[in-house]
Amino acid sequence: MKAPPGRQLDGQQLTDLLMRLLLDERLRQRLAVEGAAAVASGPGELECLETIDLAELDSAARQFRTAVWKLGRNGGLASAFPRSLRLLAAAGVRDAELLTGFLRSEEFGRFRLLPYSGRGLSEEEAFASYLIGFVAAHPDRLTGAGVDAPVVLRETVTHELLTALFTALVREQPLSFDIAVEGIARTGRGHAALRRYTPRSVASWADHPAAARQESGEPVAYAYFATPAGLRRGAVSAQVAAAFETTPSAEGDAARRALSRRGLW
Fold first, then answer.
1. Of 183, 180, 161, which Cα lies nearest the Cα of 245?
2. Phi-psi region for residue 85, left (φ > 0), alpha (ψ -120 to 50) or beta?
3. Is the pLDDT of residue 209 over 50?
4. What residue ranges in the chain does DSSP mark as E strands?
5. Closest CA relative to residue 236, chosen from 204, 264, 206, 215
6. 255, 240 contact by CB (below 8 A)
7. CB contact at 8 A, 70 and 76
8. pTM (two decimals)
9. Separation of alpha carbons 93 and 83, rounded Å
10. Which range scores top for mean pLDDT: 100-104, 119-123, 188-192?
11. What is the dihedral of CA 103, 107, 112, 117, to 10 degrees?
12. How is the chain split into domains, by residue range?
């Protein structure tokens, strides 16, 4: 893309234009059908758009989608959210639809794809936020995924996100991204977090299939720990959960001392 002297886009403007073309399939379709003049916002963009090879642009957009799907710390989004994506697939929601929606979403804008564009959220956190919004907006589409599918899916997304974030907290210091998730506590050895999930959700996770088979149906306390020794996670007792209480108590102090002796706090 090149504009004539006096009308040239600066580097940021050119980057913004390129990103819009790669992200917005409808914009590419308008460019192909209506021409550059119909989509350009000014003379500089017009000159750039008139030089584009549409076939090369479509090829670049496909490669870009593949690259975004494969980004991340453990093999890409499909590897970070396997259970969540299987639940959505069971309801007829395919990966391609989710990727298209994600690329068009505000959540994608909170992820910084280009290193020089500043810090932002990890791709996993941005995608998880999009998925949770998708579940809230389309509960009717999840009826084919089983009983309590919206609740199980929302909690599974949260679980897989925290697993990805805590894996990064073990392996990456300092982090190359920001974390907006609340409730992650600093400990003497790293980080820890506690969530409470429904028994049905925890029982559906293959790594802890029996941890939450409670007759009472009470929420399951589930903890994540990142230490130099690695990631630990799983259902925990009320005594361990007391370590995460924000109000000082003898029980909380005792729980933190016990976890410290185990190398987890």
1. 183
2. alpha
3. no
4. 184-186, 191-197, 220-227, 230-235
5. 264
6. yes
7. yes
8. 0.83
9. 13
10. 188-192
11. 100
12. 11-66, 74-175, 182-265
